[in-house]
Amino acid sequence: MxxxxxxxxxxxxxxxxxxxxxxxxxxxxxxLSLCQAGFxxxxxxxxxxxxxxxxxxxxxxxxxxxxxxxxxxxxxxxxTLRLRGDYLAIATLGFGEIVQNIIMNWDSxxxxxxxxxxxxxxxxxxxxxxxxxxxxxxxxxxxxxxMVGLIYYLIRKLIRSRIGRALxxxxxxxxxxxxxxxxxxxxxxxxxxxxxxxxxxxxxxYASYSQTVAPLTFNFMMSIMILCMVVLGGLGNSFATIAGAxxxxxxxxxxxxxxxxxxxxxxxxxxxxxxxxxxxxxYRPQGIIGRIRLNYAKILKEEILHTEK
Length: 309
Known about the structure:
Layout: H1 2-28, H2 36-52, H3 58-77, H4 85-105, H5 107-110, E1 116-117, E2 123-124, E3 127-128, H6 137-159, H7 162-172, H8 174-179, H9 184-210, E4 212-213, H10 220-233, H11 238-257, H12 268-283, H13 296-308
Antiparallel strand pairs: 1-4, 2-3
Helix pairs in contact: 1-6, 1-9, 1-10, 1-11, 2-3, 2-4, 2-9, 3-9, 7-9, 10-11, 10-12
């Protein structure tokens, strides 16, 4: 039971990283994206290929996987500049399906439906971490949640900067933001690139811990699950997104934790995510914690004092 709790904490941390990236796109900028699973898949398969075929180390592979996912974020970001709302959601949904189908059919690189196995774990102090060794699981938990904390801190700094205020302006009224001189195209492409890079890092961690990747893992339901984490906690609130990831992951694994998983069909998770989205949109669209409103007067005062110094 203790080892299973560690596994839940590990996957919760990985999903929290992916949800933080999606929250930048959906929560802070107001762009409805349904392809976060595609970015995770790109990061996971980049790590799998680079580590198994080219024998690269995990840490440089993780950074490269984030960069590769960021490139694809730019690819999807540029043509969707003129799209909003439902049309943007459909375009990103299509991108996610394209990624999954390419992975499924590019046998020479991705090994097709069979996936890639035997992905090595990261090295820490000369020891290669493995998901099969129980003593390594607490180290995985610490490493992944340190990564969650680092990404949370960097996003928090970004949102409290001028870039964050520009993203919030685009979310509230893109036309007004453009008329005030904000280059909305630059910021929208930039946020897709950053959100995709964070998703790629989550995928890299997923591949290294699971030590195997398969195309059917990164399906549309994964994107919906991550979107549920963002919506449940509160759009535009990074801490709430992490809380949403914890709640959703624990709720998904609760039947197995209490020993009744054999009595509940696996499709129940899909029903659960749909019910959560419907319930939250009707009764609490701001999420459980809700959005944090920035104190612009305080920020402006700090900037004036910094300029005077």
